[in-house]
Design brief:
Blueprint (H helix, E strand, L loop, with lengths): L3 H10 L3 E6 L2 E6 L2 E6 L5 E5 L2 H10 L4 E2 L10 E5 L5 H15 L2 H10 L6
Antiparallel strand pairs: 1-2, 2-3, 3-4, 4-6, 5-6
Amino acid sequence: MAEIDDVRPLGAGLERSYEVYVRGRLKFRVGQIVYVAFSLDESVMGFAFPKEERADLVASDPRKFHLPSASDMRFNWLHADLAVLDRDEARELVVDAWRMVVPQKVSRAYDVAHPAAAD
């Protein structure tokens, strides 16, 4: 089972990333772009994810992954149930979401510094 505390230090430590609270919800941003957000009860993690791959990921494990609300379907966004995610998987989703919002040179620098994360 993953928890916010499993990914919080990671999200806060990624280059150009910072945490904010908006209406009581923890979110991670790069600039003004939110790439990870948690529900008020901290049971669901929303994260940046390619639109064209969402349906496949949800179909692969519908207990774990959920489509966002209808109003958020226009964004590159997906939800995951933290109670079903393991810690490593949650951390991987955070890094992958961060990669979507930073320049490629920043992402490549992360890969050089963290070769295991690039696999």
